[in-house]
Every structure is written in structure tokens, then in C-alpha cells.
Amino acid sequence: MSEGSAASSDLAVRTRGLTKRFRSGQVAVAGIDLAVPRGAVYGFLGPNGSGKTTTIRMLLGLVAPTSGEIELLGQPLPGGLGLALPRVGALVEGPAFHPYLVGRANLERLDAADATTDPRTRAARIAAALERVGLTAAAGKKYRQYSLGMKQRLGLAAALLRPRDLLLLDEPTNGLDPQGTREVRTLVRELADGGTTVLVSSHLLSEIEQVCSHIGIMSRGNLLVQGPRKDLTATGRAELRVTTSAGQAGHAAQALEGLGLAGPTVRETGATAVLSTELGEVAPEKVSQVIVSEGIDLIGLEVRRPTLENLFVELTGEGFDVAR
Amino acid sequence: MSLADQPADRTGARLAPPAAATGTPSGPAELPTRRGATARLLRSELGLVLGRRRNQVLLAGLAAVPLLMGIVLFVTQDTPVAGQGPAFFDRVTGNGLFLVFTSLFVCLPFLLPLTIGIASGDAVAGEAAAGTLRYLLVTPVPRTRLLVAKALGALVFAACAVLAIAVMGLAVGAALFGLDDVTLLSGDTIPLAEGALRALGVVAYVALSLTGLVAVGLFFSTLTEVPVAAMAATVVVAIVSGVLDALPQLSAIHPGLLTHHWLDFGEFLRLQVDAGVLLEGLAVQAAWVVVFGALAWSRFTTADISS
């Protein structure tokens, strides 16, 4: 499950056995081995309450792990927090700013608190960050007058106040309209193209799936699966469906077994029969050749690769309900 | 969203001037702390505390006390009730400087603790409630440094509160009653200049007397995400301390009480100021600051920030 072989320097985020048990006894995160390669866009997926936010809070040093290790940009936590965090931009559990300050003043406050930035470039960096998230026009407005989408944008601007090597974005599309969601995706893609590693969490798979190079799926505090997105969807789970005439179903089944495929299930519907089995390593064109050469009527041949959505639902249970 | 070129300014922002790099501890020195970083954080904190409308209203409310009392005294000075009232009240009409003392005397039991409670109780809990605490911490601001900044912000606000009363008392007193040589409690008279110095001493003593309560409030502020709870608890501590101080049965513990020495600022109005009395009061405050400062620190540097 984890990319144990990868050297830690190749990983922007690496955890081993990361666990958080709250004082109530609830285990929010149950020993996960997170591995976020440098340069990746890592989709951190899972239903609400599956432990994503607690994990991100531990990565940022806000919550102390009960056990386990964390390396953030190569720095072991908690000791290396001060060195790692200036290079990390974060959006945690929604944006939060002083409601009685205007947007720009809120960013100035955060930048003044950052001991590693240059105050002489502050105004320019703030202007660039606001421009980048499309908030320039509302920079002089009080935060309390912001809409949810504008608040989210200001949160993103805060994460972009300075160049970052890693962005931890917890539900960045929350509260955004479809247009805003698309803009966030574009922004994430731009940042990733510029070399920034992005970990983006969401309980809505469809919102971020398209931009992710890697996926990790959380459920009930466990990291069920993680890896490159194409590997997750292209593993040996593809299903083969062969349609023949009903009378030849038995013959076709033998032919498939001859290829080393597991015994297919046969479903007859009128004059035709559908045989389905797991495709495994066998090439689909090989299947069609063999069936035709056996003289079997090949009415249809279909390879069904699992979508990420299928995988997600399969792993986390139906739908996106609160896990607990 | 624009296509602002992120990688272009990548190196620029990360380089620090050589002066800032020297003297920083060894280790991966790619992100040295810039010179003046702590000062910038403090300035930002003070701007936040003093720029906030609620806090400005509080200061204005405190400044209204000497104004009101001055007006009442001015209007009633030729009536039979003239001079009846709190300590030093009867002297104000003769010397406006005493309006400073009487205003502080009136504000100490409740209005100043209330102000301190709001400022210090809000310090950490207010940021937690707004959610801004987590963003400050991931900026990152080391927790100890943030707590120190918060404490200093609350202390400066406490000083501003005392100054608001004193300055307004002086201005109103001077305008309505004029300033004169100061007649002390003993009946001796000292020149106005020395009287003014002693008034400064009073202001400083009263401000320092509030430091213990600031520390208590800061500690409560680290315990909760509900600022009002921390504020109320802080005010309650001051009031309970005052109640205990009034029970003769508890005289054994009186010298250590938070509020016991608050009114000792009257010492400045004796011919011979007894430094021992003042130092004892300040020592008690220092003890409260140490104990509750340490409690606040140990709590804040280890707490999970789940707000």
C-alpha cells in the first residue's frame, strides 16, 4: 500500500504508523503510511469523518500524533516544523480570518507573522496572491461581508503569499460554485506545473479527480489504498464481458478458461449469453482471436475498467455519508 | 484567476540578506528568520488589539469615568453634597490632579478588571474561536513566541486602559479645577512638579498591579475556544479575590491575594513614600504572573489545536 521503497527525499509527505486517538478514546487516524511524492497532485479522498482533516492537522503540527512518525518536506516532525512550515501553504477546515478586517489587512497580518518573509516585498506579494485567486476587486472589503466563495479564495490567497513547495488544501472547493471549483482545479494544475506538490482533500471525488496524479482513499481512519491514479484504476480488476449466442456459451467458457481466465459467470438473455470474468493480464485482442478461431459467434466483447468512483464506493461503502 | 508566474519569484523571496543569515542557528539555513521578525509580529498584534473597534470603545468608556466625575464635581461644588464620595473626591475641586487618583480608585474594583478580562481572555481564545489561531501557527509562528506576543498585546492594552483614565482625569481636572501644588494625606504640600511625578508613579503602579490578572486571563484564554468564557472567568477571579479580601477570617491569605495591594497606590500620596509597601504589592503580582504565565505556557505549547 505504501511506497515503502521510495527514498524519503522523493516524498514531500511521508508518515509511518501515524495514529491519533482522541481523549474520548475515538481513533481518528489508525496507523496510516502516507506517501506523497514530490511534484504530485495527491487527491486525499474519503467520506466526511474519515480522518482526513485530523491527518492534515497532524502534518501541520496543530495536533500531536498519539504515535507514528511524520516527515514533512524531508523534515522529521515535530522538530523540523519550523523549517518545513514556511515552505508549506495550507487551507485547513475552511478559511478563517478576522471578520472586522478587510481582506488585504488579513493577509498583511499573516505575512507579518511569518518570520521568514521580506516585509519590503509584502505589498507586491499580497497583490499577486489576491490577483491569482481573483479577489483583487474585493481586497478592501471587510471579511465579514465576503461570500463563502470569496472567503475560500482569500484562504487560498493566504496559502500563496509566498512560493511554496507543498500545499495542503483541505476541501478547497467547499462553498464554491461550479465556476469557482473549476478555477481551483486550474489553479492546482498551474501550481503543480510550477513544481509545487499539492495534497488536496475532498469528500467529493468528482471535484478533484481530474487533476490528481495520485490518490489516497481514507475510510474510518484507515488509508485503504494509495498510489498513482492510473495504477489504481488500471490494476487487474478490469472485467471482461463476452457476448455469444446462447447455444455456444459452454464452448466459449471453455475457450476462456483455456486462456487462463477464471471460470466465467454466464448469464443467458434470450438468444444471447453474456460471459463475464476478470480480465487479469490477458490482452483483450487475444481473447477475440481465440474465440473467433474456435468458431464461436462473437457478438460482443467489452472490457470494463473500474472508474475511480467505483473504486471509491467499493472501498468506502455506498455514497458519501458521514462515516461515524 | 490570473496566470501570475509563480516560479519566477521563487528564488527571490527565499533569499535573505546576508545580515539576517549570520547569527541564525545552524541547520538547513534556507529559510532564516529575518531581522525584526518579532517586532513585526508585535506591531501586528498591537495593531490588531488597538485597532479593534470594541477595544477602542472600551478605552473610551474608561476615559468617560473621569469626565463624568469631573462634571459632577464641577456642577455640585457649591452645594451641600460637595466633596461627598470616594477617596480623594473632596480634594479634586481644590486640585484637578486629584481627579486622576479618584478616577483610578473608582475604576479599580470592577471597570479595570473587566477591561483586563476582555483583553486577556480574548487573546488566544478569540483567535481560536475565529479559527485564525491555526493559520497563525502554520504560518508558522512558534507557540511560545505567539503567546508572548499575545501577553504583550494584553499588557499594552492594560497600560492603555490605565493611561486613558489618567490622561483624561488630568485633562478634565486641569480644565475644570486647575492644577496646584499637591497637598498630601499628611497635610504637607509638595510642588506641582513633584506631584506630577508621583501621579506618574501611581499610574505605573496601578498598571503593574494588573499584570497578575492579565496572566490569569491569558491562562484561561488558552483553556477554551469560547472567548466570553475566558473573559468572564477572569473577571470572576478579580471579584472573588476582592470578596475574600473583605473577609477578616481569611486575613492570613490576604497578602497573597491578587487584588489585595491594588489600592496601595495611595502610598504615593504620603510624605515619605514607603517603597517596601509598593514592592510587596509588585512582588505579589510578579508571583501571579510567574505561576499563571507558566500554566498558560505549558497548556498552550502542548494543546491540540482543534479549532
Automatic annotation (TrEMBL), chain A:
Residues 13-245 form the ABC transporter domain. InterPro entries: AAA+_ATPase, ABC_transporter-like_ATP-bd, ABC_transporter-like_CS, P-loop_NTPase. Pfam families: ABC_tran (PF00005). SUPFAM superfamilies: P-loop containing nucleoside triphosphate hydrolases. SMART domains: AAA (SM00382). The keyword Nucleotide-binding applies. Keywords: ATP-binding, Nucleotide-binding, Transport. GO terms for molecular function: ATP binding. It comes from the Bacteria. Belongs to the ABC transporter superfamily. This is ABC transporter ATP-binding protein.
UniProtKB/TrEMBL annotation, chain B:
The chain crosses the membrane at residues 57-76, 96-116, 152-179, 199-221, 228-247, 275-297. Residues 13-29 have a biased composition (Low complexity). The keyword Nucleotidyltransferase does not apply. It holds the Pfam family ABC2_membrane_4. It comes from the Bacteria. Keywords: Membrane, Transmembrane, Transmembrane helix. Residues 1-34 are annotated as: Disordered. This is ABC transporter permease. It comes from Paraoerskovia sediminicola.
